[in-house]
């Protein structure tokens, strides 16, 4: 793999007079200044996606979200963007701030204990759900219209509310939270990039082990340690998450989605999908259609 397979370093530049960056995309079709590729940055990132469905791909974690997302990503944790033309979301708000926000002395105050703990836990990636997602996500959307001081005070309170919430899921990617320059990280990134380029076809274990420059046995141990899954399970999950996105496209049949995601037969796809998602692809697409209709204005 060449250097282009490495995650892109995103340069985060706060606006003049501000200590952190807020970006709001009220039009889902507006991709201006968005970074869709595998990337990282020293700053933590808090993302609220209002409505829609899409892929969470953070570190070694790949899963599918529905009805919006509120996610906190730790420093230097590689990830993909959470929205694209298939997502169907209504808006997206992104806040990026340093690991010592608002500054190291302030963060060490007793009153900031919970927020400091939250920022440490963010190294694993945290997805929030329930009322926390709805309420704090809506508050995040207000940030864009506030003056700098009010914006900072509101963000601190949002972080505090997230810190004390029990409506969250840890994405458990601590095994990948390595220094960007280390050989171990580069190895996993090469494998990750290889999967993203070739998941639509069969990937024999010897082939992917060669990408990692390891024997098959050593690769299996390494991959299980980093991701918590076997390579086959991880690859199947990756394909299913991609299938969830394709199922939103009414122009594709279930069979076309199955083959586009690398499954050899429709029956194999149906079994794997139901095992991972808990519903058949047909039921999943039907539920998606109902949720979209629910967003439409009623006559």
TrEMBL record:
<keyword id="KW-0804">Transcription</keyword>
<feature type="domain" description="HTH araC/xylS-type">
    <location>
        <begin position="189"/>
        <end position="287"/>
    </location>
</feature>
<dbReference type="InterPro" id="IPR020449">
    <property type="entry name" value="Tscrpt_reg_AraC-type_HTH"/>
</dbReference>
<dbReference type="InterPro" id="IPR014710">
    <property type="entry name" value="RmlC-like_jellyroll"/>
</dbReference>
<dbReference type="InterPro" id="IPR009057">
    <property type="entry name" value="Homeodomain-like_sf"/>
</dbReference>
<protein>
    <submittedName>
        <fullName>Helix-turn-helix transcriptional regulator</fullName>
    </submittedName>
</protein>
<keyword id="KW-0238">DNA-binding</keyword>
<keyword id="KW-0805">Transcription regulation</keyword>
<dbReference type="InterPro" id="IPR011051">
    <property type="entry name" value="RmlC_Cupin_sf"/>
</dbReference>
<dbReference type="GO" id="GO:0043565">
    <property type="term" value="F:sequence-specific DNA binding"/>
</dbReference>
<dbReference type="GO" id="GO:0003700">
    <property type="term" value="F:DNA-binding transcription factor activity"/>
</dbReference>
<dbReference type="InterPro" id="IPR018060">
    <property type="entry name" value="HTH_AraC"/>
</dbReference>
<dbReference type="InterPro" id="IPR018062">
    <property type="entry name" value="HTH_AraC-typ_CS"/>
</dbReference>
<dbReference type="Pfam" id="PF12833">
    <property type="entry name" value="HTH_18"/>
</dbReference>
